[in-house]
Amino acid sequence: MTTTPTPDPLDVLSGLMSGVEIITEHKHTLDPGNRTNPASGLEQAIARAATTADYGAWLDHTASAGGCVRPIQLRGEAHVVSTRTGRIISTRHTDEMPDGVIYKACGNRRAAVCPSCAEIYRGDTYQLVLAGLQGGKGIPTTVTQHPCAFVTFTAPSFGAVHSARKHRGRDGQLRNQICRPRRKPDPCPHGIDQRCQQTHHDGEKILGTPLCLDCYDHDHQVVWNALSGELWRRTMERVKDTLRRWGKHHGVRIKLSYGKVAEMQARGVAHFHALVRLDGINPIAPHAIAVPHASADFTLLAHAIRRAVEGTRFRSLPHPDQPDGWLIEWGNQLDLRPVRQTVDGVITETAVAGYLAKYATKAAEATGHSSARLTNATVRRYAVLHTHAGRLVEACWRLGRPGSDLDEDEAAKNSARLSYRRLQRWAHMLGFGGHFSTKSRQYSTTLKALREARANWRQERHRTADHADDTETTLIVGNFTYANTGWRTIGDALLANTAAAKAREHRRLVKELIAESTEN
Length: 520
Description:
Layout lengths: L8 H5 L3 H9 L12 H13 L1 H10 L10 E11 L5 E6 L8 E3 L10 H20 L13 E6 L12 E3 L5 E3 L41 H33 L3 E11 L5 E11 L17 H14 L1 E3 L11 E3 L4 E5 L10 H11 L19 H4 L5 H12 L8 H6 L1 H4 L3 H4 L11 E3 L7 H15 L12 E12 L4 H30 L1
Helix pairs in contact: 2-15, 3-15, 5-8, 6-7, 6-10
């Protein structure tokens, strides 16, 4: 078995204190029966690391979930099976392993929940997006010849909010401007002045908060969040229809591919950042990715997108609080730029892939709200009316109450997309219930394929020593059941996360050395 070299216990423990605050913050992720304070957790870590032989085996056993804040504990057995005969060569039960369980990373994509798993998700999303731009991972490198647009789709305004307004000066540099400059007082119907003479900067907590909570249309915003996925679907259908009619008129066959990431803005509404690519259609191999005709250029793609954004709108189903429903449409701001531009304002493939991957790990934290799925017992804690995020949660819970779907037949027909009942299910996401990262079928590879490749690599790397020299191909088949969630003690969490942090730092240094050697 390929094992991790047993580290010096003193070297490992030197990094533990820096992780105490992180583990204490996620103390609820430990086994309920093994929660301890940080001081006793450090003592447990010292005791575990002092047993050099056992510690090395335990560290190697937990390496795959080392950085996870909330790993899944599995109990069962793993069989090594011959792929040629189907014969079970050997069997190992988790009772024979350290702690009597196998630790599996939680896989949560949210950085606020599990930074380590979110970083893996971010890396996978980066590779997925980049493959759709440069090729690789089963995608032909000829995609670099396809017209491609980097587009930001924004939500409409639901009320005046504090913002970091920017202006580009004559020297080309962006400078912050006054938030809401007015010469005279501008009171709202509730008597609150709508002026703001401050200059806000990125990262300030006030960004995205309404100037008047009572004027802001929280109901409309959460409904827009809930139906933004449907708005995206209808928009892409309109883009495809425009391209289809253009192709029929010019005798050219083209199709659309895209990769999309949702970003939750500070005001609590979703924006979509997308890479939209034009592909050709090969009559001999219609499912292959082909270079489009030269006449199908970026200008055509931009025209189709702009026309679809301007023309796509619909009303939500009738609601007891809004019999006519709410208007669902895009905002006025549409940022549409070509990828691989060769003049000032260039957008490179790697830059845009990193940009999209960064937002794939975020959720509603930008608004100051962070919670798990809410229930009747927990919603009161978050649905507070004196905060912007609290009013959004309250709007989700109120609008999603039983009996909210007046047109029950239509809601039942399209329950996954149009029903108001889903607002309560996604109240912790301020109404947004869609996937934060999606793509069309042919844009790139899949996250599943990337995960399977990583799992196969790990299986090869951790084959047992008994079969390392065998020429016979084997398969590992597991039969596991859920045992628990979280690390057994704070001490174990400290050790596992410290070791994982050292491994990440080692990989980072290796990448830098490789990059330097390549440049030289």
